[in-house]
Amino acid sequence: MGAVTIGPLVVAADRFAVVLGIFAFIAVTTVLARRIDPRFQAWSGWVLIGGIAGARLGHVAIHWRNFAEEPWRVIALWEGGFYWPTAVAAIILLVLFALKTARQRLWSVLPLAAALVIWNTAWQLTGGTQAIPLPGIAFSTMAGEPHALDTTAGKPKIINLWATWCPPCRREMPMMAEIAASSSAVDFVFANQGEDRQAIAQYLSGEGLELDTVILDAFSELSRHYGAPGLPATLFIGADGILRHAQIGEISRETLQSNIGHLTGGN
């Protein structure tokens, strides 16, 4: 479900693929530094820094309105949010200006190609999303009323699997509550995993959060149904009730808005 589990660690598939690509790049440039030219060692460090910085700054530039309101989020790399064309531009500049000879530039293609192949292979193997339908069971709301997810077909929905003890869940919740309150094109459902009403109510009250639809999934049935390996998990469900995309781990405002656009035909 768009994630890789390594022991107790759960890593989103896109981030896992990037990490493997980076390891491949470092491994090949280390060999080049030993056997071809030692300057490849320093160059590899600049490529990593420049590529990440370029990708992040490109993302920030595209979504500058969001970051103007929350400038501290520019360094919140754990949320994700990178724009690959600006990363490529930064890397090309580093190839042209940091490597002085045609021989060095030709050899630089090898670690870059290795990183690309490993990243793409890992992403293809781990990044798929199964077309899972909504479960045909009802859950209890905070008010004690039954709520059946599959009875509201015809409108896209976003289901957030969360818990009060989960730090990334708590970090993203105020932003998700804000977007849920302003998004009439989709239904937001906040499905608490395994906690009782008192714990949930205490958290929401303490944080001053108002959520229209909070359901109690006491036995984490939704996590099992969708194969979510950890929390938080944000599920993007089409109007036909079929899972379109799943985000494992903390989600950024931009990723949430982008996926809402895909669900509603806005992008």
Structural commentary:
The chain has 267 residues and is α+β, with helices and mostly antiparallel strands. The protein folds into two domains: 3-126, no CATH class; 138-264, Glutaredoxin (3-Layer(aba) Sandwich), CATH 3.40.30.10. 52% of the residues lie in helices and 16% in strands. The protein contains nine helices and nine strands. The chain has helices spanning 13-35, 39-62, 64-69, 84-98, 102-126, 167-182, 197-207, 221-226, 253-264; strands at residues 3-6, 9-12, 138-141, 146-148, 157-162, 187-193, 214-217, 233-237, 243-248. The chain is elongated and about 70 Å long. The two termini are 23 Å apart. The model has no long low-confidence stretch (mean pLDDT 93).
